[in-house]
Specification:
The complex is a heterodimer of chains A (about 350) and B (about 375). Chain A is mainly α. In chain A, about 70% of the residues lie in helices and about 0% in strands. In chain B, the strands form three sheets. A three-stranded antiparallel β-sheet of chain B has the order 1-2-3, with no helix packed on it. In chain B, helix 5 packs antiparallel against helix 12 and helix 7 runs antiparallel to helix 12. The chains are: A mainly alpha (about 350), B alpha+beta (about 375). At the A-B interface, helix 7, helix 10 and helix 13 of A face helix 5, helix 6, helix 8 and helix 15 of B.
């Protein structure tokens, strides 16, 4: 059917046979495959970001009793593409008092960190750029770079609002990283592996065996912490428009702003993809009978559903205050995630 | 050791820094400039600078006849033009001793109460926007559109009405008005319950507003706060009850008050006021006398007798009063406008010092200050 894994594998075997028969070292093929995978991931990610921006505008519009973009393409589908083109054309303004190097590298780092997480995300059966055996650990390590980029943007802009936004985001992202990581551990303990593909395969094609049920607490904690990780309402303090104008990216314009903007949406897709992988069975169908639908459709469907919930949050809730935010992370989510970890350990010890 | 720690803390002590919030800022509701002295996230001191919207309306009044000045009153509080019109009309009528036909008084009540709803809807939307909830903003503007439709039906305008004139109102309501208006109030009560469902019991909303920015009654009185701002501090002061003007004396309504004077109380007072306004509109529409006279015949050039007068009404944001000095000429000698927002803005500094910048935005939103009214 539309599964890519066998196709890719057969192409790879054919190519390696051709390489061997012509006496070229296979390492070149591996490098080419890596480059292809990187390009493919970048393509998917840019497409996903462009789509998500449009989707968010549509969802917000429909929640708010409006139509949203309608003019460019069918139902405004090309709106984000046009917006991106506009942003590319814009003059790149650097504030005179900014720290030029830090100011320049912040959006780059934001985007690169968002991009690198995709290397270990299994988009479908066999559709994974690199199945690291420490996949989930790698993702947590890589996504932490985001906070450095936000801090750099806040500091490098030499603007008080940006600085406040950067400081807020540093405090917030680091605080929520802790319950997030601990809630992820529950799924890792159940699967017995940190490889993203391994976790998906351990769950199997039965929706009642996916980890959302035994890890319902962990799933909830993960999702709340992830909302905070990607700075979405009700945790969007770093860019609180009504307080800090635009927060850390207040001085950015043109393509640099677009990179922050894209990174935000890419990150939103990332956390949803991780939640799908860890708790919703990744690319597995809910019952074995539905296996004829390609695995990547299942993955995208589940991920986009979670993204939709994130967007739904954003257009429904007011924003928390900075002390309430920190209190919520340290006094509520963290103890709860420890309880979850303990219960999971107990369950694994008793039933396996 | 203790000394060492103390010395370290000395090194770590951070300086306060100044932030210039406004005149261009998303949540200053116009062009207010706040000079904030911040200690991290905390507001240590703040000074509002006003005057960016000054249009010398009071001076303009000295160069216009009494009737010519009525359109200018629309521009004092553009979210609530009807009460601004009415305050001027009531003041001049008191000065010149003009009687207003009863049907016109009822129409005035209906229009100002509708405008109160429209104005409170803007408050509700902007307040939730200040707290980061964008969606209620668009909902409230959807409802406000319906009020504006009613106004457009009556006087042809949607923002600056120039409807309430000296001696009456500019024109009668169309025959369909009553039907649409009853429909609106019926529908709107349900919509109000919806908004309360989104906001009132929302734990995030409660966390952001309960106990935040408590306005003690003595501060409110000393700074001249009025309207829902002072009613939130458990003080039932409403000109409609205290000094009944128009036909408010004949109508039944209650004055909702808050308990603690925090941001949430000011919010709930306004929500309740919208319900009371609905009741008032229904009652006034039901009891409106049938007559063709909606405006007293006035001389072409109105020359009130020599003297001075102060009269005030309850505008959506609080007391709005006009002090007029007449020297018997066709133009007023001096007009002083007392607007509610000016008094309400002054309490911002005493009640928001010590809170975080996010709370400052919430408190400022809850005071419902409108800047053209502050600067005039």
């Amino acid at each position: 059917m539309l599964e890519f894994d066998k196709l890719l594998l057969s192409i790879y075997t054919a190519l390696s046979a051709w390489f061997v028969s012509n006496g070229i070292p296979v390492i070149w093929l591996d490098l080419a495959v890596m480059a292809f995978a990187a390009a493919a991931v970048l393509g998917v990610l840019l497409l996903a970001a462009l789509f998500l921006v449009w989707w968010e505008r549509k969802i917000s519009a429909h929640i708010q009793d409006r139509l949203g973009p309608m003019r460019t393409g069918p139902h405004g589908l090309l709106q984000t593409l046009i917006d991106a083109l506009k942003l590319i054309q814009k003059e790149d303004i650097v504030p005179a008092s900014a720290d030029k190097k830090i100011y320049f590298w912040a959006p780059v780092l934001a985007f690169v960190a968002a991009y690198m997480a995709y290397i270990v995300i299994p988009f479908g059966k066999g559709l994974i750029a690199r199945d690291l055996n420490v996949g989930i650990l790698y993702i947590i390590a890589i996504t932490t770079f985001t906070v450095i980029s936000l801090l750099m943007a806040g500091w490098g802009s030499n603007n008080k609002y940006a600085l406040l936004g950067g400081m807020r985001s540093a405090a917030q992202v680091i605080s929520y990283e802790v319950p997030l990581t601990i809630s992820v551990l529950g799924a890792v303990m159940l699967a017995g592996t940190m490889s993203m593909n391994g976790i998906v395969e351990a769950q199997g094609p039965y929706f009642w065996k996916w980890y959302w049920l035994p890890q319902i607490l962990g799933f909830g904690i993960y999702f709340i912490a992830a909302t905070a990780e990607v700075n979405r309402t009700p945790f969007d303090l770093p860019e609180a428009e009504q307080e800090l104008v635009a927060g850390f990216n207040v001085e950015y314009s043109g393509m640099k702003f677009a990179m922050f903007f894209l990174a935000e949406f890419v990150n939103m897709f990332t956390v949803s993809a991780i939640a799908t992988t860890l708790f919703l069975g990744g690319w597995q169908p809910p019952i074995p009978g539905l296996v004829f639908i390609p695995s990547w459709v299942w993955f995208l469907g589940k991920t986009l559903f979670l993204v939709f919930i994130l967007m739904w949050f954003r257009w429904t809730y007011p924003r928390l205050r900075v002390d309430q935010l920190m209190g919520f992370a340290w006094k509520f989510l963290l103890p709860l995630s420890f309880v979850n970890l303990f219960l999971t350990g107990l369950g694994v010890y008793l039933f396996k | 050791m203790d000394q060492l720690i103390e010395k370290k803390m000395e090194d770590l002590r951070e300086d306060e820094f100044l932030i210039n919030m406004g005149p261009q800022h998303p949540s200053t509701h116009g062009v207010l400039r706040l000079m904030l002295k911040m200690d991290g996230e905390f507001v240590r001191d703040l000074t509002p600078y006003v005057g960016y919207l000054h249009r010398s309306i009071e001076k303009i009044a000295e160069n216009r006849t009494y009737n010519q000045f009525t359109p200018f009153t629309d521009r004092i509080d553009y979210c609530a033009s009807m009460p601004s019109n009415q305050a001027w009309a009531v003041a001049v009528e008191k000065l010149a001793g003009i009687e207003v036909p009863e049907r016109a008084e009822y129409l005035r009540v209906i229009m100002t109460e509708l405008n109160r709803i429209a104005s409170h809807l803007i408050y509700l939307g902007v307040m939730s926007l200040d707290l980061g909830a964008v969606t209620p903003f668009l909902y409230t503007f959807r409802e406000r559109e319906k009020v504006l439709d009613l106004f457009e039906m009556t006087c042809g305008q949607r923002l600056t009405y120039n409807y309430i004139r000296i001696g009456g109102v500019s024109r009668d309501i169309p025959s369909q008005f009553g039907k649409y208006c009853f429909e609106f109030t019926k529908d709107f009560r349900k919509k109000l319950d919806d908004y309360e469902a989104i906001l009132t019991e929302n734990p995030i909303f409660l966390g952001r507003t309960k106990g935040v920015g408590v306005l003690p009654l003595d501060i409110a009185k000393n700074y001249g706060a009025s309207g829902p701002t002072i009613r939130g501090s458990n003080y039932a002061w409403d000109i409609r009850k205290a000094e009944p003007y128009s036909v408010y004396g004949k109508l039944n309504f209650e004055i909702p008050t808050g308990k603690n004077g925090d941001t949430w109380d000011r919010y709930i007072v306004r929500m309740e006021e919208m319900r009371q306004s609905c009741n008032l509109i229904d009652e006034a529409l039901g009891g409106i006398p049938q007559s063709d006279v909606i405006k007293t015949k006035l001389p072409v050039v109105l020359k009130p007798p020599k003297g001075e007068v102060f009269s005030r009404i309850e505008a959506p944001r609080g007391e709005m009063g006009y002090y007029i000095v007449s020297n018997g000429d066709k133009k007023p000698y001096r007009v002083k406008i007392r607007t509610a927002s000016y008094g309400n803005l002054q309490v911002l500094a005493p009640i928001s010092v010590g809170w975080k910048i996010a709370d400052l935005v919430a408190i400022f939103g809850s005071l419902d200050v409108i800047l053209p009214e502050v600067d005039r």
